[in-house]
Each structure stands twice: as C-alpha cells, then as structure tokens.
Amino acid sequence: MDFQLTEDQQLLRDTVRQFVENEAAAGAAARDEQMEWPTDLVRQMAELGLLSVAVGEEFGGAGMDYVSYALVIEELSRVDAALGVIASVNNSLVCFGLEEFGTEEQQREILVPLASGQALGAFSLSEPGAGSDAASQKTTAVREGDSYVINGVKNWVTNGDHADTIILMAMTEPGKGHRGISAFLVDTHASGVSVIKVENKLGIRSAHSCQMAYDNYRLPAWRRLGEEGQGFKIAMTILNAGRIGIAAQAVGIAQGAYEAALNYAQVREQFGQPIIEFEGVGFTLADMATRIKAARLLTYAAAWRKDQGLDYIKDAAMAKLFASETAMWVATKGVQVHGSNGYSKEYPAERFFRDAKITEIYEGTSEIQRLVISREIAKT
To answer: Which residues are identified as catalytic?
Structure first.
C-alpha cells in the first residue's frame, strides 16, 4: 500500500484546511454555544463539493475516492466537528445509499440535487424505544394503492430540520422483526412530516439532531428505496460505509484537541519554563500523537479497502472503534494539559472534549463495533 497521498488528495486536504481556518474557525465556539445552524458554511461546503466527495460525477458529485472523503471529514472536524457530521451524513448515509440502492428515477430526481448541493439529506433509524435494537422500532408504513401511509416518531435525525430528503426506516410487516423493515425516501416538504424538537446536546451543537413525527404522511410508492423487507440490509450497508466517515471525524477531533494542547504547552509556563518541557506533559503529548497516527492509518486503510472493492466491514468497525476512543482519550488529556483553563470556554479544549464523546455512540456504539468485529473475526 502506498502511504503517500496523491497530488489531488493533498490539494483537496489543503483546500478544506484553508476553508475551515479562514471561514469556520473564528465562529465555531459561538455557533456551538448558541446551537446556530451554519447556513452559510453548509452552502460553501456544497459549492466546494464537500457534501458529495465520493459521489459519481454523473450524479453531480466530485467523483473522488473514499480516502479523499475521509480527508475531508477529518479536516472539517479538526476545526468544527459539527461541519464534519453534517457533511458525513449527506455523503455516506444518504448519497451512498441512493447510489447503492436507488432506481434510475430516484437517482435522477433525488440524488442529483443532493450531490450538486441544491438539497440536503438526513438518515433516520433510531426511535425513542429503538437504538441499537433496530428491530424494536414502532414507526409503520402501510401500503395503500400507489402510496404508503407512514406514522411514528423518530429520534436523533441529524440535519433533520434542514433536510430536503430523509432515508427513513419503517416497519412494513411488524411481525417479522428486522425482516419487516423497509426503507423510504421522505420528502420533508410534504404534509404529515414535522420536527418535534431540536435536541439540546452536549456537543456538536450547531449540527442539529431532531426528533421528528410522521402523522399519516403519504409517500408515493416510487419513493420506497429497495424492496419491501430490505430496509435492515440497506441500513446496515449504509452504516458500514458511514463508520469510515465517523472514524475520520474522530481523528479530526483528536487532531484538533492535540494541536490545542501542544500550542498551549509551548506557551504556558510553570516553575520558570514551558510546561511541555516537563516529562509528564511531554510524554502525554507523545502518546496523543502516536494514538492519532494509529487511528488515522486504520481509517485510511478501511477507506482504501472500500475503494478497492474489498470487504471492509471489519476494518470500518475497527477504525470507528479505535478512532472514537482515541478522540475521547486525547480530548480528555487535552483538558488536563490545559489545567483549570481546560475547564473554561475561553479555550477550545472543553469543546473538543464535548464533541469527542458522540463518536463513541452514533452510527453504532463502541459496544456494537466490538460485536461486529468479534463476529467478523469468528468467520476466519
């Protein structure tokens, strides 16, 4: 494997880095504090092609590989993890799902606007009583002629209040468990779809996660994604790819936390010298840098396997597990390096700390990743 980035990948990374440092960095803390949706930044990301990095050019996407996609999410998250997850959802949870399972009509009518930046997507699986146990969901979709009538409540729909299309999982045959789940392409502008609330979250606060209701929402049958009963398979396929994006987000958060701690340690003095010169601090920073590099290599390896058409389920789960736990460890140590200043909102350490935690939870908790990995290694 060639560990050197291509010229195109280096240019992409530098472009995204310049964008976030010039346009996003200054307001990141304020957006987080106020839960302010980054309207202008999302528009700029769309114009740069960051919302459809790996989507085929025939659909209006950038047509790049998944390593490039990981680079984009990492660089966004290094400065503002909220931007990273907004882009990740549209890229790998929505556009990828439509490329993989959509009909020509669905790709033309729905994927093209999403890939070109004219629309934004969201993904909806979790419910108030169904998180890791997807088969326990209660949202139903009942066939009536050429339509489905959908009723239910969904939780944690990231981008939900700004999305134009949502890939929704609902029960078409409740008695069949996960075999009774089907996938649908919701038009959020139609009647019967509403946002109940935007969650007041610990971290990534300017990326809105919503509770949404479906009240006799009538969806045309052509908007069913895949066949009836195929929804669980579709959801798991989408999430397997999405874990690469969350691993990259975790690497970015860890990198941002590390850089903040390193910069602080170089200028903060105690006992007449910069604190980085104390072994306790210097060794901590060394461990941070080492774990981040390992997480990054795991993430790139998973992305590379996907690009090569190889099985990447285990690798994506490993990358997501290790990178997310690395992000949490690095961010925690980052607060410690800052001392009491790490507990202050005047410094970025506390925001990285709050942002890191969710990477261990969404798109499959660390426990679910260990379950996936254990099942995959049992096959060998």
So the answer is: 363
